[in-house]
Design brief:
By secondary structure, the chain is an alpha/beta fold. The protein folds into 2 domains: 186 residues, 3-Layer(aba) Sandwich (Rossmann fold), CATH 3.40.50; 150 residues, Rossmann fold, CATH 3.40.50.2000. It has 14 helices and 13 strands. The strands form 2 sheets. The chain has a 7-stranded parallel β-sheet with strand order 3-2-1-4-5-6-7, with helices on both faces. Strands 10-9-8-11-12-13 form a 6-stranded parallel β-sheet, sandwiched between helices.
């Protein structure tokens, strides 16, 4: 076990979120004979939603990324990792700056969104006295690798943020063991729809609700997730007379169970990175209907095999009627994504990248 490659994962928190879940999953499942792994969490241990085992877990217990610069610096100076991999734009920006002091360490920034579109869809939650986009562009160029989850994201980084092509890599998100295919299509008396995701602007709950208010068939709609736009979203549901059809679950560790019990996964996002919940719905055998948007949706959804992509609201309603009347083979739906995004393949992609960086 000596001479293992030391890899430090840096994430903002262990609260519910796709980036946090994927990064912690990769960290825990890397080959322990090759890698010595630390998961460095900027946020508070008391707010952790995931159980982390088998690796070194360090909480900095800081309220936000901006005040964690020196604690992260001190940790890296003491631990001297071979590779640092971070996720989410503001953390990647910070780590790009830190790379100036650690010339022997390779820095990987894992982007989670198509940034140019996200900036137009969703306003920043905080106002800073400098240009985040300008700082991001300069800082990302300091990273050794910019890791993208989809081709859309890679294209955006090159064309809109002038990222050097030779620093771009694409590794999709993995499907964990929690999402096994169901044996047969569920036989619900009325259609059961589900959406899993943060209640924020970019997730497009508004256009899902607007479309569902025009859907003529009976249905139940499960919304799993929480966020700062919950008041607006459920206020809109009330205006559209949908409140009695909605079951809201702010957080659950049984996402797989709810996905299996549903007939169709609905996604309204205006932009994605690589949508974990949509991928996981396919993995359990539940077909999906998504509004067309940048961020890997076109890579996951195979028309008529595991679901459909809708161009607009009228197209969404036509395809929702079609998807609810059709008989789906859960195994076929599941196989369509397992063959491309199984954990063995994605973990091997990460391991090969880390080995390449330390040659």
């Amino acid at each position: 076990m000596e001479n293992r490659i030391k890899v430090t994962f840096v994430i903002p928190s262990l609260r519910p979120g796709g980036a946090e879940r994927v990064m912690s999953y990769i960290a825990q499942n890397l080959n322990k004979h090759l890698f010595e792994v630390t998961l460095l969490v900027i946020g508070y241990s008391k707010k952790a939603s995931y159980d982390i085992t088998g690796i070194n877990l360090v909480f900095l217990n800081k309220p936000r990324v901006l005040v964690a610069f020196w604690p992260i610096f001190k940790h890296l100076y003491k631990s001297k990792p071979d590779i640092v991999i971070s996720a989410i734009t503001h953390v990647n920006t910070l780590m790009g700056i830190q790379s100036l002091w650690f010339k022997k360490t390779k820095f990987v920034g894992r982007e989670v969104n198509v940034l140019s579109v996200l900036n137009n869809v969703q306003a920043a939650s905080r106002k800073y006295p400098f240009s985040i986009s300008g700082l991001t562009e300069r800082s990302y160029k300091l990273l050794d690798i910019i890791l993208c989850q989809s081709q859309d994201m890679a294209t955006d980084m090159i064309h809109n943020f002038n990222a050097p092509k030779d620093k771009i890599r694409i590794i999709n998100n993995p499907i964990s063991d929690l999402f096994k295919p169901k044996e047969k299509q569920v036989d619900n008396k009325i259609s059961k729809f589900i959406t899993v995701g943060s209640l924020v602007t970019r997730k497009g709950h508004d256009r899902l609700l607007n479309a569902l208010s025009k859907f003529e068939g009976p249905f139940e709609y499960y919304i799993i997730g929480d966020g700062d736009k919950s008041g607006e979203i459920f206020g809109l549901a009330e205006v559209l007379s949908l409140t009695n059809k909605i079951i809201h679950i702010p957080f659950t560790k049984d996402v797989s169970k709810y996905l299996k019990e549903s007939d169709v996964f609905l996604q309204g996002s205006y932009v994605e990175g690589f949508p974990n919940a949509l991928l996981e719905s396919c993995a359990v055998g539940t077909p999906v209907l998504a509004f067309d948007a940048l961020g890997g949706i076109n890579e996951i959804v195979e028309e008529g095999i595991n679901g459909f992509v809708a161009k607009d609201e009228s197209d969404f309603l036509l395809k929702l009627d079609l998807i609810t009347k059709r008989t789906w083979d859960p195994k076929e739906v599941s196989d369509s994504v397992i063959k491309k995004y199984n954990k063995e393949k994605i973990l091997k992609d990460y391991e090969n990248l880390f080995l390449e960086l330390t040659k």
